[in-house]
Design brief:
Order of helices and strands: HHHHHHHHHEHEEHEHEEEEEEHEEHH
Number of helices: 15
Structural class: alpha+beta
Shape: globular
Length: about 375
Protein backbone atom coordinates (compact mmCIF):
# COMPACT_ATOMS: atom_id res chain seq x y z
CA UNK A 1 0.00 0.00 0.00
CA UNK A 2 2.86 2.33 0.91
CA UNK A 3 4.56 1.70 -2.46
CA UNK A 4 1.27 2.32 -4.31
CA UNK A 5 0.83 5.61 -2.44
CA UNK A 6 4.33 6.70 -3.40
CA UNK A 7 3.77 5.82 -7.04
CA UNK A 8 0.40 7.60 -7.00
CA UNK A 9 2.04 10.81 -5.78
CA UNK A 10 4.95 10.64 -8.21
CA UNK A 11 2.83 9.79 -11.24
CA UNK A 12 0.38 12.56 -10.54
CA UNK A 13 3.14 15.10 -9.92
CA UNK A 14 4.43 14.49 -13.44
CA UNK A 15 0.93 14.66 -14.96
CA UNK A 16 0.10 17.81 -13.01
CA UNK A 17 3.43 19.44 -13.91
CA UNK A 18 2.95 18.77 -17.61
CA UNK A 19 -0.56 20.26 -17.56
CA UNK A 20 0.79 23.26 -15.67
CA UNK A 21 3.52 23.93 -18.23
CA UNK A 22 1.09 23.46 -21.13
CA UNK A 23 -1.06 26.27 -19.71
CA UNK A 24 1.99 28.40 -18.89
CA UNK A 25 3.22 28.19 -22.48
CA UNK A 26 0.14 30.22 -23.41
CA UNK A 27 0.12 32.53 -20.40
CA UNK A 28 3.74 33.54 -19.75
CA UNK A 29 2.72 36.06 -17.08
CA UNK A 30 2.08 33.19 -14.65
CA UNK A 31 5.54 31.63 -15.07
CA UNK A 32 6.94 33.19 -11.86
CA UNK A 33 4.19 31.47 -9.85
CA UNK A 34 5.21 28.14 -11.35
CA UNK A 35 8.94 28.76 -10.85
CA UNK A 36 8.74 30.07 -7.30
CA UNK A 37 5.78 28.15 -5.84
CA UNK A 38 4.48 25.16 -7.82
CA UNK A 39 7.78 23.59 -8.95
CA UNK A 40 9.48 23.76 -5.50
CA UNK A 41 6.40 22.10 -3.97
CA UNK A 42 6.51 19.33 -6.59
CA UNK A 43 10.23 18.78 -5.89
CA UNK A 44 9.61 18.47 -2.15
CA UNK A 45 6.87 15.85 -2.64
CA UNK A 46 8.98 14.02 -5.22
CA UNK A 47 11.98 13.84 -2.87
CA UNK A 48 9.80 12.72 0.02
CA UNK A 49 8.97 9.56 -1.91
CA UNK A 50 12.54 8.48 -2.73
CA UNK A 51 12.34 8.86 -6.52
CA UNK A 52 10.12 5.79 -6.85
CA UNK A 53 8.65 6.95 -10.15
CA UNK A 54 12.10 6.35 -11.67
CA UNK A 55 13.95 3.89 -9.40
CA UNK A 56 17.24 4.42 -11.25
CA UNK A 57 17.32 8.17 -10.67
CA UNK A 58 19.04 8.14 -7.29
CA UNK A 59 21.51 5.49 -8.47
CA UNK A 60 22.26 7.63 -11.54
CA UNK A 61 22.61 10.68 -9.31
CA UNK A 62 25.53 9.14 -7.40
CA UNK A 63 27.03 7.66 -10.56
CA UNK A 64 27.07 11.09 -12.21
CA UNK A 65 28.46 12.73 -9.08
CA UNK A 66 31.41 10.33 -9.22
CA UNK A 67 31.94 11.08 -12.90
CA UNK A 68 31.46 14.86 -13.01
CA UNK A 69 32.09 15.95 -9.39
CA UNK A 70 34.77 13.44 -8.27
CA UNK A 71 35.49 15.43 -5.12
CA UNK A 72 31.80 15.45 -4.06
CA UNK A 73 32.45 13.56 -0.78
CA UNK A 74 34.59 16.45 0.37
CA UNK A 75 31.89 19.02 -0.41
CA UNK A 76 29.72 20.74 2.15
CA UNK A 77 26.59 18.58 2.83
CA UNK A 78 24.51 21.73 2.32
CA UNK A 79 25.85 22.05 -1.22
CA UNK A 80 25.04 18.40 -1.97
CA UNK A 81 21.50 18.77 -0.67
CA UNK A 82 20.99 21.83 -2.81
CA UNK A 83 22.47 20.06 -5.86
CA UNK A 84 20.27 17.00 -5.37
CA UNK A 85 17.17 19.15 -5.06
CA UNK A 86 18.12 21.10 -8.18
CA UNK A 87 18.66 17.91 -10.19
CA UNK A 88 15.20 16.68 -9.23
CA UNK A 89 13.85 20.09 -10.22
CA UNK A 90 15.49 19.77 -13.66
CA UNK A 91 14.15 16.23 -13.96
CA UNK A 92 10.56 17.31 -13.31
CA UNK A 93 10.56 20.61 -15.18
CA UNK A 94 12.96 19.91 -18.06
CA UNK A 95 12.90 16.09 -18.18
CA UNK A 96 16.68 16.07 -17.82
CA UNK A 97 18.36 12.92 -16.58
CA UNK A 98 21.26 13.13 -14.14
CA UNK A 99 23.93 13.03 -16.86
CA UNK A 100 22.31 15.70 -19.04
CA UNK A 101 22.18 17.96 -16.00
CA UNK A 102 25.99 18.03 -15.94
CA UNK A 103 26.58 17.88 -19.70
CA UNK A 104 24.41 20.98 -20.24
CA UNK A 105 25.84 22.76 -17.18
CA UNK A 106 22.42 23.21 -15.57
CA UNK A 107 24.02 23.96 -12.22
CA UNK A 108 24.97 27.43 -13.50
CA UNK A 109 21.79 28.25 -15.43
CA UNK A 110 18.60 29.93 -14.33
CA UNK A 111 15.06 28.79 -15.02
CA UNK A 112 14.72 30.65 -18.33
CA UNK A 113 18.08 29.53 -19.69
CA UNK A 114 17.17 25.90 -18.99
CA UNK A 115 14.06 26.18 -21.13
CA UNK A 116 16.33 26.51 -24.19
CA UNK A 117 17.57 22.91 -23.90
CA UNK A 118 15.93 19.78 -25.28
CA UNK A 119 16.39 16.65 -23.17
CA UNK A 120 16.46 13.29 -24.90
CA UNK A 121 13.33 12.20 -23.07
CA UNK A 122 11.42 15.32 -24.09
CA UNK A 123 12.59 14.89 -27.70
CA UNK A 124 11.01 11.44 -27.79
CA UNK A 125 7.82 12.51 -25.99
CA UNK A 126 7.29 15.45 -28.35
CA UNK A 127 7.87 13.33 -31.44
CA UNK A 128 5.51 10.65 -30.16
CA UNK A 129 2.87 13.23 -29.36
CA UNK A 130 3.08 14.93 -32.76
CA UNK A 131 3.68 11.94 -35.04
CA UNK A 132 2.65 8.79 -33.17
CA UNK A 133 4.32 5.57 -32.07
CA UNK A 134 3.80 3.91 -35.47
CA UNK A 135 6.12 6.42 -37.18
CA UNK A 136 8.89 5.61 -34.70
CA UNK A 137 8.31 1.87 -35.23
CA UNK A 138 8.72 2.29 -39.00
CA UNK A 139 12.04 4.09 -38.62
CA UNK A 140 13.31 1.77 -35.90
CA UNK A 141 12.84 -1.24 -38.17
CA UNK A 142 15.78 -1.15 -40.59
CA UNK A 143 14.01 -3.49 -43.00
CA UNK A 144 10.99 -1.21 -43.29
CA UNK A 145 13.11 1.92 -43.70
CA UNK A 146 15.32 0.24 -46.30
CA UNK A 147 12.27 -0.58 -48.39
CA UNK A 148 11.13 3.05 -48.11
CA UNK A 149 14.45 4.52 -49.23
CA UNK A 150 16.32 1.67 -50.97
CA UNK A 151 17.04 3.81 -54.05
CA UNK A 152 19.47 5.85 -51.96
CA UNK A 153 21.43 3.05 -50.25
CA UNK A 154 23.40 2.08 -53.40
CA UNK A 155 24.63 -1.23 -51.99
CA UNK A 156 23.44 -4.80 -51.57
CA UNK A 157 21.47 -5.68 -48.43
CA UNK A 158 20.20 -8.98 -47.06
CA UNK A 159 17.80 -9.55 -44.14
CA UNK A 160 18.49 -12.47 -41.81
CA UNK A 161 15.91 -14.14 -39.56
CA UNK A 162 13.95 -17.33 -38.97
CA UNK A 163 11.39 -16.35 -41.59
CA UNK A 164 14.02 -15.45 -44.21
CA UNK A 165 15.34 -18.18 -46.57
CA UNK A 166 18.91 -19.24 -45.86
CA UNK A 167 19.57 -19.35 -49.62
CA UNK A 168 19.26 -15.55 -49.84
CA UNK A 169 21.93 -15.11 -47.17
CA UNK A 170 24.14 -17.71 -48.86
CA UNK A 171 23.89 -15.87 -52.19
CA UNK A 172 24.68 -12.58 -50.48
CA UNK A 173 27.81 -13.99 -48.79
CA UNK A 174 29.06 -15.50 -52.04
CA UNK A 175 28.92 -12.06 -53.61
CA UNK A 176 30.14 -10.26 -50.47
CA UNK A 177 32.24 -12.57 -48.26
CA UNK A 178 33.30 -9.50 -46.27
CA UNK A 179 30.27 -7.59 -44.91
CA UNK A 180 28.71 -5.84 -41.91
CA UNK A 181 25.75 -7.03 -39.79
CA UNK A 182 23.49 -4.99 -37.49
CA UNK A 183 20.43 -5.90 -35.37
CA UNK A 184 17.26 -5.12 -37.31
CA UNK A 185 15.99 -2.87 -34.54
CA UNK A 186 19.33 -1.90 -33.03
CA UNK A 187 20.59 1.58 -32.26
CA UNK A 188 23.71 3.49 -31.17
CA UNK A 189 25.96 1.06 -33.04
CA UNK A 190 25.40 -1.73 -30.50
CA UNK A 191 26.10 -5.32 -31.66
CA UNK A 192 27.42 -4.20 -35.04
CA UNK A 193 30.08 -6.49 -36.51
CA UNK A 194 32.23 -6.73 -39.62
CA UNK A 195 32.37 -10.39 -40.65
CA UNK A 196 34.32 -12.39 -43.21
CA UNK A 197 33.36 -15.92 -44.30
CA UNK A 198 35.38 -18.24 -46.52
CA UNK A 199 33.19 -21.34 -46.88
CA UNK A 200 29.57 -22.43 -47.08
CA UNK A 201 30.02 -24.30 -43.81
CA UNK A 202 31.00 -21.08 -42.05
CA UNK A 203 27.99 -19.34 -43.56
CA UNK A 204 25.71 -22.07 -42.12
CA UNK A 205 27.26 -21.70 -38.66
CA UNK A 206 27.05 -17.90 -38.77
CA UNK A 207 23.45 -17.98 -39.98
CA UNK A 208 22.45 -20.26 -37.11
CA UNK A 209 24.14 -18.03 -34.54
CA UNK A 210 22.46 -14.92 -35.94
CA UNK A 211 18.91 -16.27 -36.02
CA UNK A 212 19.32 -17.54 -32.45
CA UNK A 213 19.85 -13.89 -31.43
CA UNK A 214 17.01 -12.32 -33.41
CA UNK A 215 16.71 -10.54 -36.75
CA UNK A 216 19.56 -8.82 -38.60
CA UNK A 217 20.46 -6.78 -41.61
CA UNK A 218 23.61 -7.72 -43.54
CA UNK A 219 25.05 -5.02 -45.77
CA UNK A 220 27.72 -4.73 -48.41
CA UNK A 221 30.62 -2.77 -46.92
CA UNK A 222 30.88 0.91 -47.77
CA UNK A 223 34.26 1.90 -49.16
CA UNK A 224 34.57 5.42 -47.84
CA UNK A 225 36.32 8.35 -49.48
CA UNK A 226 39.95 8.96 -48.55
CA UNK A 227 38.95 12.39 -47.21
CA UNK A 228 36.76 10.86 -44.47
CA UNK A 229 38.95 7.78 -44.07
CA UNK A 230 41.80 10.06 -42.99
CA UNK A 231 39.93 10.74 -39.73
CA UNK A 232 39.75 7.06 -38.75
CA UNK A 233 40.22 4.17 -41.21
CA UNK A 234 38.67 1.40 -39.05
CA UNK A 235 35.16 2.94 -39.10
CA UNK A 236 32.99 4.43 -41.83
CA UNK A 237 32.80 8.04 -40.65
CA UNK A 238 29.34 9.46 -41.25
CA UNK A 239 27.29 12.64 -41.33
CA UNK A 240 24.09 13.00 -39.28
CA UNK A 241 21.62 15.42 -40.87
CA UNK A 242 18.47 16.04 -38.75
CA UNK A 243 15.86 16.96 -41.36
CA UNK A 244 12.42 18.51 -40.74
CA UNK A 245 9.85 18.61 -43.52
CA UNK A 246 7.67 21.69 -42.99
CA UNK A 247 5.35 23.85 -45.09
CA UNK A 248 8.41 25.99 -45.89
CA UNK A 249 10.38 23.01 -47.23
CA UNK A 250 13.11 20.96 -45.57
CA UNK A 251 14.92 22.49 -42.59
CA UNK A 252 18.20 21.13 -41.21
CA UNK A 253 18.96 21.56 -37.51
CA UNK A 254 22.40 21.13 -35.93
CA UNK A 255 23.95 18.56 -38.33
CA UNK A 256 27.16 16.89 -37.21
CA UNK A 257 30.09 14.83 -38.44
CA UNK A 258 30.96 11.59 -36.60
CA UNK A 259 34.24 9.76 -36.53
CA UNK A 260 35.25 6.57 -34.74
CA UNK A 261 38.36 5.86 -32.71
CA UNK A 262 41.30 3.70 -33.68
CA UNK A 263 40.20 0.04 -34.02
CA UNK A 264 36.44 0.69 -33.68
CA UNK A 265 34.14 -0.38 -36.54
CA UNK A 266 31.45 2.18 -35.64
CA UNK A 267 31.56 5.95 -35.19
CA UNK A 268 28.77 6.27 -32.60
CA UNK A 269 29.53 8.34 -29.51
CA UNK A 270 28.13 5.50 -27.40
CA UNK A 271 31.08 3.38 -28.56
CA UNK A 272 33.85 5.92 -28.10
CA UNK A 273 33.19 7.97 -31.24
CA UNK A 274 33.55 11.74 -31.47
CA UNK A 275 31.21 14.21 -33.15
CA UNK A 276 31.39 17.87 -34.16
CA UNK A 277 28.63 20.21 -35.37
CA UNK A 278 28.89 21.92 -38.74
CA UNK A 279 27.08 24.94 -40.17
CA UNK A 280 24.14 23.81 -42.38
CA UNK A 281 24.72 26.79 -44.67
CA UNK A 282 28.47 26.55 -45.27
CA UNK A 283 29.20 22.90 -44.39
CA UNK A 284 32.12 23.99 -42.18
CA UNK A 285 32.65 22.46 -38.72
CA UNK A 286 32.13 25.14 -36.06
CA UNK A 287 32.87 23.24 -32.83
CA UNK A 288 35.52 21.10 -31.24
CA UNK A 289 34.95 17.34 -31.25
CA UNK A 290 32.94 15.95 -28.32
CA UNK A 291 32.53 12.44 -26.95
CA UNK A 292 29.64 10.85 -25.03
CA UNK A 293 30.91 12.12 -21.68
CA UNK A 294 31.32 15.72 -22.77
CA UNK A 295 35.09 15.40 -23.30
CA UNK A 296 36.24 18.00 -25.83
CA UNK A 297 38.93 17.57 -28.48
CA UNK A 298 40.44 20.30 -30.62
CA UNK A 299 41.98 17.54 -32.77
CA UNK A 300 41.13 13.87 -33.28
CA UNK A 301 43.12 12.00 -30.57
CA UNK A 302 44.32 9.35 -33.05
CA UNK A 303 44.65 11.00 -36.47
CA UNK A 304 45.47 14.49 -35.20
CA UNK A 305 43.09 16.20 -37.65
CA UNK A 306 41.57 19.45 -36.38
CA UNK A 307 37.78 19.63 -36.14
CA UNK A 308 37.02 23.36 -36.25
CA UNK A 309 37.27 24.76 -39.74
CA UNK A 310 37.16 21.39 -41.55
CA UNK A 311 34.88 21.63 -44.58
CA UNK A 312 32.40 18.85 -45.32
CA UNK A 313 33.18 17.60 -48.84
CA UNK A 314 30.40 17.99 -51.43
CA UNK A 315 28.09 19.52 -48.82
CA UNK A 316 25.83 21.30 -51.33
CA UNK A 317 25.22 17.99 -53.12
CA UNK A 318 24.41 16.28 -49.81
CA UNK A 319 22.04 19.05 -48.75
CA UNK A 320 20.14 18.69 -52.03
CA UNK A 321 20.08 14.91 -51.63
CA UNK A 322 18.68 15.13 -48.08
CA UNK A 323 15.69 17.13 -49.34
CA UNK A 324 15.19 14.67 -52.21
CA UNK A 325 15.27 11.62 -49.92
CA UNK A 326 12.99 13.24 -47.34
CA UNK A 327 10.39 14.21 -49.94
CA UNK A 328 10.43 10.65 -51.29
CA UNK A 329 9.23 9.28 -47.92
CA UNK A 330 5.56 9.06 -46.89
CA UNK A 331 4.17 12.38 -45.67
CA UNK A 332 3.93 11.29 -42.03
CA UNK A 333 7.73 11.06 -41.82
CA UNK A 334 8.18 14.75 -41.13
CA UNK A 335 11.33 14.37 -39.01
CA UNK A 336 14.19 12.02 -39.82
CA UNK A 337 17.77 11.99 -38.60
CA UNK A 338 19.56 10.81 -41.75
CA UNK A 339 23.02 9.23 -41.67
CA UNK A 340 25.08 9.49 -44.86
CA UNK A 341 28.54 8.30 -45.88
CA UNK A 342 30.76 9.47 -48.73
CA UNK A 343 32.06 6.62 -50.92
CA UNK A 344 35.47 6.35 -52.55
CA UNK A 345 33.76 7.35 -55.82
CA UNK A 346 32.61 10.65 -54.32
CA UNK A 347 28.97 9.49 -54.10
CA UNK A 348 26.74 10.06 -51.09
CA UNK A 349 25.01 6.90 -49.82
CA UNK A 350 22.32 6.59 -47.18
CA UNK A 351 23.35 4.57 -44.13
CA UNK A 352 20.10 4.74 -42.16
CA UNK A 353 17.34 7.02 -40.88
CA UNK A 354 15.92 7.34 -37.36
CA UNK A 355 14.48 9.70 -34.77
CA UNK A 356 17.99 10.93 -34.13
CA UNK A 357 19.06 12.32 -30.77
CA UNK A 358 19.94 16.01 -30.72
CA UNK A 359 23.43 15.51 -29.28
CA UNK A 360 24.75 18.49 -31.23
CA UNK A 361 23.69 20.58 -28.23
CA UNK A 362 26.64 19.10 -26.33
CA UNK A 363 29.13 20.21 -28.98
CA UNK A 364 27.67 23.68 -29.57
CA UNK A 365 26.82 24.23 -25.89
CA UNK A 366 23.60 25.65 -27.24
CA UNK A 367 20.02 24.46 -26.73
CA UNK A 368 17.72 24.00 -29.73
CA UNK A 369 14.40 23.26 -28.01
CA UNK A 370 12.49 26.24 -29.47
CA UNK A 371 13.58 25.49 -33.03
CA UNK A 372 12.86 21.79 -32.60
CA UNK A 373 9.33 22.47 -31.32
CA UNK A 374 8.76 24.99 -34.13
CA UNK A 375 9.85 22.55 -36.84
CA UNK A 376 7.86 19.54 -35.62
CA UNK A 377 4.75 21.68 -35.09
Amino acid sequence: MKQKTKFFWKKNIVIFDEKCRTVLDKWHITHPIYEKVILPLEVTIYQAHDYKLIPAFKREYFKMLNRYVPEWKEKDPTYLKKLEKDMVRAHICNRMDAEEYFLYDFEHQNYWQRLEWLSDKERFILLQRHYGENVFAELRNKSFFYNLAKNYFHRDVCFVGKEKPFELFLQFTKKHPHFIVKPLEGSLGANTYIIEVDSEERVHILHQKLIERGEWIAEELIKQHQITEAWNPSSVNTFRVPSFRTKDGVNILQPFFRTGRNGSVVDNAGHGGIFAVFDPETGIITTDGVDEYGGRFECHPDSGLKFKGWEIPYWDELKTLVAKVHHSLPEHHRYVGFDFALTNEGKWVLVEGNWGQMVGQMAELKGIRKKFVKYIS
